[in-house]
Amino acid sequence: MVYILTADQIGSRLSRDAVPAALDLLSAVPAVRPFDRTVEAAKRRPQHVAVAGPDEPVAADAQAVLTLLVAVVQRRSEAAWEAVDLVSAGLTMTEAATKLGVTRQAIGQRLAAGLWQQEQDARPAAARLLG
């Protein structure tokens, strides 16, 4: 099954064009067609993500999951990002706490506030829906 995922650069009129760099990063991702700047559908979506494909209900489900993932990431605080980045890089919560000079419980609170576990749980679902 082939799906099309579109994303819109938020604030593109006020900031530099990030699409060329994003396309360069995505060039290593296996895809039926190369990533390109073409579709405008994402501009009308709340989190600027749109999915289209031959199985419309599956595409709608993928779009819903990806929209939630983007909303989670967009609303994450700087403190939550610090914890997420360290734990995602392989540090334990204790190691992350030591590196940031906070308690292990503070790391847990930052991860919980940043909905890190929910993001981790939703990513495979998004991948399966787009697979």
Explain how this protein is built:
The protein has 131 residues and is mainly α. It is 54% helix and 6% strand. The chain is built from 6 helices and 2 strands; from the N terminus they run E-H-E-H-H-H-H-H. The chain has helices at residues 19-26, 56-74, 78-88, 93-100, 104-113, 116-130, and strands at 4-7, 49-52. The protein has a two-stranded antiparallel ribbon with strand order 1-2. Helix 4 crosses helix 5. It is globular. The termini are close together. The mean pLDDT is 87.
Descriptive keywords:
6% strand; globular; mainly alpha; 131 residues; two-stranded antiparallel ribbon
Strand order of the largest sheet: 1-2
Question: Fraction of residues in helices?
Answer: 40-55%
Terminal CA distance reads 7 Å
Instruction: Characterize the main sheet.
Output: 2 strands, antiparallel
Uncertain spans, ≥5 residues at pLDDT below 50?
none
What's this, in brief?
By secondary structure, this protein is mainly alpha-helical. 54% of the residues lie in helices and 6% in strands.
Please outline the helices and strands.
Layout: E1 4-7, H1 19-26, E2 49-52, H2 56-74, H3 78-88, H4 93-100, H5 104-113, H6 116-130
Antiparallel strand pairs: 1-2
